[in-house]
Amino acid sequence: MTEPPVLVDITDGVMSLTLNRPDRLNAMSHGLIAAVNEALDRAGKDHDVRCVLITGTGRGFCAGADLSGGGPGDAGADGKPDVGTAMDRLFNPMIRRVRGLPKPVIAAVNGVAAGGGANLALAADIVIAARSARFDQAFVRISLIPDLGGTWFLPHNLSDARARALAMLGNSVPAEKAEQMGMIWQVVDDAALMDEARALARRLAAGPTLSYAAIKRALSESGRHSLSEQLDLERDLQRELGRSDDFREGVAAFLAKRPARFRGQ
Predict the structure, then answer these.
(1) Which of 97, 32, 35, 37 is closest to 71 using CA atoms?
(2) Which of 8, 27, 139, 244 could, after both became Cys, cross-link 144 (CB 3.0–4.6 A)?
(3) CATH number for position 244
(4) Domain count across the chain
(5) What is the domain extent for residue 219?
(6) Spatial distance between the Cα atoms of 92 and 14, rounded to a whole number of angstroms
(7) Are residues 226 and 136 located together in one domain of the fold?
(8) Looking at the domain assignment, is residue 114 inside a domain?
(9) Same-domain check for residues 125 and 165
(10) pLDDT digit string (tens) for 83-94?
(11) pLDDT at residue 174, rounded to an integer
């Protein structure tokens, strides 16, 4: 029986998505991307899913697009690869789902994250990596540009100078350096990665998911807003959150000096 390209598990409010093509370092086939998109759609609709955790099976997180078959693009009308159509149909919708999901997304990077795999990780809200992991913007090696949001994530997470150098040189960035540069949130010992990632996911799953959704929206829109526009957006989001049951529960718990019990309502 053929293993599915993505393993899906829901436990304690956390949907774990494990990329499951270890023989290909979890390179993204069209089937893998379709499975991730389907699971993210399910996560968005299922009230019992309060956080998503993405990781990989085996030695790698994700080696990017599978260039050996079912890879970045089908042939266009002129017989040449049409990478853009695959981006529109599969890759870009996946990144939009990750960023737009009104729930926290954690990437637990357990090994190499290369090309689109690196940028899938960077699309997550919080990235935690094993000490042996590395991030490769390898696109220039095959005469492409960073995609899956890479040209947006790199300059937003790093300086313009570092973003340009990483994109043009295609250098490998070890996890500890990625943490020091501000590319990712945290590095942990390899053996502790999944325990730390699951503990973080459970913490987020028990938290105020309405607040998380508003935080994701506010941060995403900040780049195109003036300060005055962002203040207006913060006001509008606070007005909505202030009417929620979770806000009332949070205040009551604070005053009673007890843990809050958030329900996403």
Answers:
(1) 32
(2) 139
(3) 1.10.12
(4) 2
(5) 209-256
(6) 24
(7) no
(8) yes
(9) yes
(10) 888 899 999 999
(11) 98
Contact 25, 112 (CB under 8 A): yes
Question: Euclidean distance between the first and final Cα of the chain, in Å?
Answer: 42
The pTM assigned to this predicted structure is: 0.93
For the segment 176-182, the average pLDDT, to the nearest whole number, is 97
| Residue 264 resides in a domain | no
Of 216, 55, 35, 72, the closest CA to residue 148 belongs to 72
Encode pLDDT of 25-59 as tens digits: 999 999 999 999 999 999 999 999 999 999 999 99
d(CA 171, CA 259): 45
> For helices 209-222 and 92-100, what crossing angle results, to 10°?
120
For β-strands 6-11 and 14-19, DSSP reports them as antiparallel
**Predicted local confidence at residue 120, as pLDDT:** 98
DSSP category for residue 184:
S
The region that residue 93 occupies, defined by phi over 0 for left and psi between -120 and 50 for alpha, beta otherwise, is alpha
**Positive or negative, the Cα torsion across 209, 194, 7, 4?**
positive
